[in-house]
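Run log, item B.
One chain of 357 residues. Sequence copied directly from the ordering sheet:
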Amino acid sequence: MDKNRGDDIRGRAEGTAPVPLSVLDLVSVGQGRTATQALRTSVNIAQLAERRGFHRLWVAEHHSMPGVASSSPAVILAHLAAHTERLRLGSGGVMLPNHAPLVIAEQFGTLEAMAPGRIDLGLGRAPGTDGATAAALRRTDRLNEGADEFPQQLAELTRFLDDDFPDGHPYARIHAVPGPVQGPTGRPPIWLLGSSGFSARLAGVLGLPFAFAHHFSAQNTIPALDLYRESFKPSAVLDAPYALIGVSALAADEEREARRQVLTGALSMVRLRTGRPGLIPTPEEAEAYAFTPMEREFVDSWLGNVIHGTADEVRSGLDDLAKRTGADELMITANAHGGGARVRSYELIADAYGLRG
């Protein structure tokens, strides 16, 4: 086997971190703030991640959510690529059933041409929104059909990226540009994302890297990772499994401040789950909010899966999670109202692990 297989996928742990650390940026928009400010914060976070030794930064596709400004991952990634030099950038993920595979191949071929060797293509099969919005995106209400066709869509996308449809195929004379038809070129590695077992098994069978959404599906993390590893077959991409998990974590200078900040994300999730999505509330609004008993139960459960506190407390929580899950990489998302709190959290985590300054 090629000893370099997977070198554009596997990260390297920096400082005293147990595994490579990365960033998932949801481009959060807080109450009283704008999408423009949120996108500026994303640039600040990307530059911080590059400077301090985080391995990669991903953005996720969401739609019709006022508190999240990442409906167009490819556009945001182009913006971040223009403001960084070495950091890996990618989608965590693009929701494949929402798009024609050729369009995604063109978008990420363009990104690869802009930032060669720095782009990841993470793919999910969920809509990244509610059913009505998904129907508007896809121009159909047959949403389950789109999810069921995910393996076929993935195969088609891969063919477009590699420009290798067989002779006689209806798409054999169609080329994703930028792409291989223009000459030898690299292409973004494909990752499969999931919050259950479907994508875990598919990623294993195909020998692809796998990213699991531990930050909102913690009860399924270990079963999904086990399934991925058990299903894994070596491929031209990887000779051994490689799995990262998304982790909700926020560090602050004081434990009480960390609690105030993560409560804003919890209230935002309460509103989202009850059909009232909005901008991320301020800490003051979250503290003053009168949670119903059912909402309080949800918040307690949600916050139980958010690692928060001082830098030392967050480091301890991340260390424990890496040990319990055996994850090859931790991708940290810091949910809070203000950009300053999120930037400060990544700085504190970098300091706690002695990442480069």
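Observations after the first pass:
- The radius of gyration is 20 Å.
- The mean pLDDT is 93.
Flagged for discussion on Thursday.
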